[in-house]
Amino acid sequence: MSYMLIVEDNDDLAFGLRRTLEFEGHEVDVASDGEAGVAMVADRAPELIILDVMLPGQTGFEVLRELRRGGFRAPILMLTARGEESDVITGFDSGADDYVTKPFSTLELMARVRALLRRTATGAGAVSSPASHPWTVADIRVDPSTRTVVRAGSPVQLTPKEFDLLTALHDRQGAIASRADLLSEVWGYRNAEVATRTVDIHMAELRKKLEKDPSRPAFLLTVRKAGYRMKS
After folding, report:
1. Which residues in the chain are classed under CATH 1.10.10.10?
2. Where does the chain show beta strands of DSSP type E?
3. Which architecture characterizes domain 135-230 according to CATH?
4. Model pTM?
5. Per-residue model confidence as pLDDT tens digits over 39-72
6. Taking the CA of residue 138 as centre, how many other CA atoms within 13 Å lie in the half-sphere pointing to its CB?
């Protein structure tokens, strides 16, 4: 199976997570703080990291950014106790692949872990447009070949998942994409396997960066009880 690292300072929680993952056949190590976690990654790169936000010393966000700057590319699942949307957004912007809010069920956590490992194994979750030439919508210009976005002549920094989500909506040419479709295509989740606001949070961030009035989007549209679509 896979080698995983848990970075969590709550001994009881870390022990329970380790036992659950080992029961599934994975090899698991535990670090109780960020510095120890970074050192263990340098010694032996895990195939997945479960990283708590609230750690002694370095925060989980600081650990996440350090690992990504150092070239670590395996999935990182964040644990947050507060469940605040700002924490989730900070995690995604720093390079997290997913998050779980404490308290969480073991079934939910394992579903997220399986999805992340499956995406890594199959290459799912990395969306590429069938057309490599640039395209435009409103005052936005997107170049899939370089994964760059320019709005009204100024570069816009999108996270990898924000860019993949934007591309997935564009490729549907105005058709509706359900949240389950987008979770499967962009994040590699099987439909209805997990309940998450990941798509909604990323859409809100895309609108902040690309729409003139995010509260009244002109082209990144919500279709009530159905999902999202892009208006050209």
Report:
1. 135-230
2. 3-7, 27-31, 48-52, 76-80, 98-101, 135-137, 140-143, 148-151, 154-156, 220-223, 227-230
3. Orthogonal Bundle (1.10)
4. 0.69
5. 999 999 999 999 999 999 999 999 999 999 998 9
6. 17
